[in-house]
Amino acid sequence: MSRCYFDALSGQPLAEPAQSAISGFISRIWADPDQPHHEGAQAGQVLQAAREAVALRLGVSPGAVSFHSASDVAQLAVSGILRSVGQRAPGDQQRIVTSTVERDVVMQSTAAFGSVRRLGVDSEARLRLDDFRATITSDNDPASCVVLQAANTEVGTLQPLSEVFSLASAAGVPVAVDATGALGLLPIPSGWSALIADASTWAGPRGTSVLVVNPEFRWYRTDFDRGAASLIHDTVDVLNATAAAAALDATCGQQPQLSAALYEWTRQIRSFVSEHIADVDVLGDPDERLPHVVTFSFLYADGERLARELDAAGVAVGSGSACAARAGLPSHVLTEMGALTHGNIRLSLPVTTTERHVEHLLAVLPDAVSRVRAEAGM
Amino acid sequence: MSADQIDALDPLANLQPTVTLDERGSRCPIPVIALGKAVRTLLLSHGHAGLRELVVIELLADDPATRSDVPAWCRMQRARVVSEEAMPDETGWRFVIALSPSEADQGPSDADRAESS
User: Fold this and answer.
1) Is A12 a residue whose pLDDT tops 50?
2) CB-based contact (8 Å) between A121 and chain B?
3) A278 to each of A163, A259, A299, B109, B112, how far by Cα in Å?
4) Interchain pair B73, A339: CB under 8 A
């Protein structure tokens, strides 16, 4: 039995055109794309082609696109917006409005600037719009910037982006959207000032992210950025950038059929588990969600133990709270939702998923859960 | 109204626990498993008709995940958290959980599990 891989959100096989791009360029493109010599110019051309490919898919100009490492892209977006909007009055502290369920790297990047207001979510991890409206229109605590995910990558729920964009726009507050998990799979509504997304979302290289600036937003360029062909100086190498662009192009090219198929499979998995396994929390919005993500908390089961049991049965899944488990704390997303934090596994289907993979998962999951519960005496 | 005053009004707040579980030192999901086992034992002792009287469980735990998981367990098992308080000297939390006869009757899953095992 070959492997069934369901942990796309933490990395998935590179799309074939991305593999070809890397193998085609790896021996030829190695120079600094900013250098004027022949070798540098060659690298610069490849990078520019990558920008153009992403720009075409997002409906922006190539200069609005830059490529970064996943660990610094959120910080670049937030600091860039704050620098661009400036302080309302000298000495004013800038205020960021965000949610309590952002990805860790985004949480950290917001904590580094100004004061941060983290708004709570409902039981499906969706931002509460009433709270957001009240916060964004508050005169005595004006926001400088909103930072919000397009979808929660732990449970799949889509955030009410269109509503957030129109409320923020009416209040004159720019929004940075984290489209990790969504870009390439779902249309992202317009209205963001900056968009970031990790390329593993669309079968690009993990750890490489794109940062896209809305052409209508007056982005303040630093001295460091002024030499670059884009608004913002790229911080990853040309090979990763070109692989990310080739993968986005390939994944977008399979739409809308790809997302429709993924959505239908995750719907089947959700309903199978609700029907055949007792004492389980099926997390996230059943409809308004990422097409490829489904997350469960199985009562009385140890999530990491269950992930190992499934791995032994040929199925790779994410142990949802694994990251937090290392710190000995429950997942902040599950805690905010009021969900069961143990027994948590996240399935995120890669773009290469087939019917056979889903069938194998459903064939082994009930017994794996029973075995882990039986070990615990339940 | 202070929390104490609310407690005084809640008829469940001052009940003696039927069962006390001390799960300090165990990591999640073990404290929640202990709750599940306690309920299973109670259901077995009460037979097919389900719980005949109100059951109050006191749980002591120090894994911070129990602060999410105990309320989530109650939601899934139709029980309710009567109170949660921090233990002195940061040694954990004390939860008081109530299962009323009607609530337990509606929760078939643990009864089924108790029968099948």
Assistant:
1) yes
2) no
3) 37, 29, 9, 7, 10
4) no
